[in-house]
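quick one: 4AD bound model?
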Amino acid sequence: MKHADIKNVLSNADMVGSDVVVCGWVRTFRDSAQVAFLELSDGSSFCKLQVVIDKGALSVDAEATKLGASVAVKGKVVKAYKGEGNELNASEVVLLGKCPAEYPIQKKRTTLDFLRTIPHLRLRTNTFQAVFRVRSVAAQAIHRYFHEHGYYYINAPLITASDCEGAGEMFRVTTQPWNASYKTAEDYFKEDFFGVKAGLSVSGQLEGEVAATALGKIYTFGPSFRAENSNTKRHLAEFWHVEPEVAFAELPDVIEIAEDMLKYLVKAVLEECPEEMKFFDTFMEKGLIEKLTHVANSDFAVCSYTEAIAILEKENARFEFPVHWGSDLQSEHEKYLTEQVFKRPVFVTNYPKEIKSFYMKQNPDGKTVAATDLLVPGIGEIIGGSEREADLSKLQAAMSERGMDRSAYKQYLDLRRFGTVPHGGFGLGFERFVMYCTGVENIRDVTLFPRSVKNIM
Ligand code: 4AD
Ligand code: MG
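yep, here:
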């Protein structure tokens, strides 16, 4: 059906006077003696198009005026009678699809909790349309940032035999059920599709390192999977992961890239989604625009893990999990640091090696690794990264300490055998970034069909 986008009809002054067809869903209908008004949304813009119906000249099927009904409207574009932009004087309203009264998206019942029960319809609301427009703009900005900075876009495999984070949080990929004829797990996996135990990748990093140690600067942007049993507002079983990996980069370089990238993305969202951001500032998080503008224009803090623990230990009374040197930071500690102490994004660096992954570069102190997490107010960890261990024997030792099967990582070890170089990178949780930009507090509300423990609607 040839038709114009509402976004264009609304804002393009050149269209005034022209005859167009628009298509969309009815958001509101107001009736008076001589004229009626239909508000239409087609998803193209935050603002709706007002369709003016001269009742003397045009009679409209009542079904075409019901909330949620889909219609095509032919008419003339005119300057809006009130306010800015254009509206449409209808000459014909065609009902495309009826929408009966049990339509669940009613004005009074639109709490996020309720909308989560109808993921297939919740995108018809302002909130979700705004979230997904921001998400789309952010995704484009990610590709643009890396492209402009000379990175190559790599697609890492999603099915893998190696567990990157070494934390055993992989979903299994298999085509065969277990039966009693398999005596051992090895027996069983030998018969399975790949002949070895396979799973869904938790990160594209290991393959990213393969590419970076040949192409120099690369990034991946795709789904990662975590079979974590954490039913929190910031964990998904399937999330989108942005992972740059850079040859000849040490920890300070990794931090610099992460900060520069994040600021670029925040600016892009502020510039390209002004209407959406105004909406979120009003309805989701007061002061959001000011907060993000500040983030985009000021330096992030950097603090070592050891310093962070010294700060947190003094406040142990307030935490559910008191900390000491060696403890992993929980969400409550991360939030305290970034919200109460630094009041801005903070890179925590040089964590104890015991609580971080095998691949991280071991520092000369023998106790810490050159890792960094970026913590932001409201969310906590949004980025995790590190310089990688480039020394073959040190890497082998770290794997042995963790009881890892080195034969499964032969290719990864080869990168250290043949022309090893310092290199590093990080992973940004894309949904956590969208939460940060929109003020949406639950990760399930920035994801089309969120997957989490006991939830696959
Ligand atoms: O800290 P993580 O586990 O680091 C890695 O996977 C590294 N291999 C990344 C790298 O260096 N290339 O994950 C990175 C980020 C986290 O900071 C978080 O934002 C996000 O990925 N993330 C999740 N987001 C949603 N749901 C989950 N279950 C997540 N797990 C991690
Ligand atoms: Mg992490």
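Residues 211 and 366 are 29 Å apart (CA to CA).
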